[in-house]
């Protein structure tokens, strides 16, 4: 029975390279000289450190540009709150989304059921598997998901015929 998986995964290699390129640019830019401006990637969290909110926004802008150049959708980034870490330094943690949240998976599942396309959607941990009898039905389901779900960057993997 034909099937495909709907996933929400960023290429962590490209994210790592974008963070490294951002670090290089921070060290060479004149307006960041002598400041504690830094960016760091640990697991799936990017930590921005700087003197003020304005500096954090500049670092984030550089990061977004580098991610865009590497074809990583910036909707993968989930910004946290700006925290004061002593003195006049601030930091912000940005999480890189990986996997479809349960709430979104249920929304997609409901969307597919309501569309009356002859496919079934099953939630499997951080992805959503869609199965159907015909390949055309699966392609219609893909088109429906792409059209209606725009808040997160979804991709389709593991298409089996």
Task: Characterise this structure.
It contains 4 helices and 8 strands. Helix 1 packs across helix 2. The protein is of the alpha+beta class. The protein folds into 2 domains: about 5-10 and about 100-160, 2-Layer Sandwich (Alpha-Beta Plaits), CATH 3.30.70; about 10-95, 2-Layer Sandwich (Alpha-Beta Plaits). It starts with a strand and ends with a strand. Strands 6-7-1-8 form a 4-stranded antiparallel β-sheet, covered by helices on one side. The protein has a 4-stranded antiparallel β-sheet with strand order 2-3-5-4.
Summarize this structure briefly.
With 161 residues, this protein is α+β, with helices and mostly antiparallel strands. The chain has helices spanning 12-28, 53-69, 102-114, 135-148, and strands spanning 3-7, 38-42, 45-50, 77-84, 90-96, 119-124, 127-132, 155-160.
